[in-house]
Amino acid sequence: MSGADAIAEFDSVGLRYGTGAEVLKDLDLRLLRGGFTYLTGASGAGKTSLLKLLYLAQRPTRGRIRLFGEELSHAPRAALPGFRRRIGVVFQDFRLVRHLSAFDNVALPLRIARRPESEIAVSVRELLEWVGLADRSAAHPPTLSGGEQQRVAIARAVVGHPELLVADEPTGNVDADMAKRLLHLFERLNELGTTVLVATHDLSLIAATKGAQLMRLDGGQLVDPTGLLRHPPPRTRAAG
Ligand SMILES: Nc1ncnc2c1ncn2[C@@H]1O[C@H](COP(=O)(O)OP(=O)(O)OP(=O)(O)O)[C@@H](O)[C@H]1O
C-alpha cells in the first residue's frame, strides 16, 4: 500500500515534555484515509499526547510526521492553521467558548469557513438536535452540564465535515444510550469520507464499531492488536 492512502503517518516518533522522560517512544503508525480507528491504553499511557501530535498542538521531539501527505517538519509555521482547519477536534476538556451560546460554538467552524448564515443555521440546528440539545441552543457553556458541554464540543467538531476527526474520550460524560447515538454520528461522518480517530476506555463502543482498527498505547509505545500498523514504515511513495 502506498503513502498516498494514508492521511497521517508517524515514523519513529518520540515526544517528551521539557526535560522529562519520553512519554511517546518510537511510534510508527499509519492512519488510512477513510478509516475508523480506536486508540486505547491505561490512564497516562500517552493517548492525549498522541492526539496532540495529530492535531498539531505539539511537535514531536524526534521522528517524522506526515499529515495530508505533507511532511510537517518541512511545513512553514504559516501553513499550520490551514492544516488545522481540516481537522475536527473533540478535546477532553471540551474548550468551548464561554461567552458564546451552544449554537454559536457549534457554528464557529462554519463561520471561519465563511459559509452563508442560512446554511449555518440549518447545519447547526440539525446537529444540536442529533446530540439532544435542540432546546439548549441559546445556553452558554457555564450553564450546561459536563455531558451537555461534551455534546456541544462534538457537534462543533463534526459540523464542518472535517477530513480528519480526532476525539479524546468523546463519550466520557454521557450515558450508554447517548454514547450509542454519538457513535452513530461518527460512523455516519466516516461513511461520508471523514477519517476518524477516537481515544477511549469504552470497550462497548469499540465492540459496537464494525471494521474499526484498534491501537493500544502501553508505556508510551504502540501495541498493535489488529496487526494493521506499519512496522517498519514503507519507504515508497506514490506519485501525486
Ligand atoms: N503538558 C505536559 N507536561 C508534562 N507532562 C505531561 C504533559 N501532558 C502530559 N504529560 C505526561 O505525559 C504522560 C502521558 O499523558 P497523556 O495525557 O498523554 O496520557 P493519556 O493516556 O491521555 O491519559 P488519560 O487517559 O488519563 O487522559 C503522563 O505521564 C503525563 O503526566
From TrEMBL:
Gene3D superfamilies, alphabetized: P-loop containing nucleotide triphosphate hydrolases (3.40.50.300)
**Membrane association type:** Peripheral membrane protein
Domain ABC transporter: residue ranges: 8-239
Q: Which GO terms describe its molecular function?
A: ATP binding
Location in or out of the cell: Cell inner membrane; Cell membrane
Which of UniProt's keywords are assigned here?
Answer: ATP-binding, Cell cycle, Cell division, Cell membrane, Membrane, Nucleotide-binding
GO biological process, any = cell division
PROSITE patterns, alphabetized? ABC_TRANSPORTER_1 (PS00211), ABC_TRANSPORTER_2 (PS50893)
Assembly and interaction partners: Homodimer. Forms a membrane-associated complex with FtsX.
Family the UniProt entry places it in:
Belongs to the ABC transporter superfamily.
Task: Briefly state the protein's biological role.
Answer: Part of the ABC transporter FtsEX involved in cellular division. Important for assembly or stability of the septal ring.
Protein name as it appears in the record: Cell division ATP-binding protein FtsE
Q: Which organism does this sequence originate in? A: Sphingomonas arvum
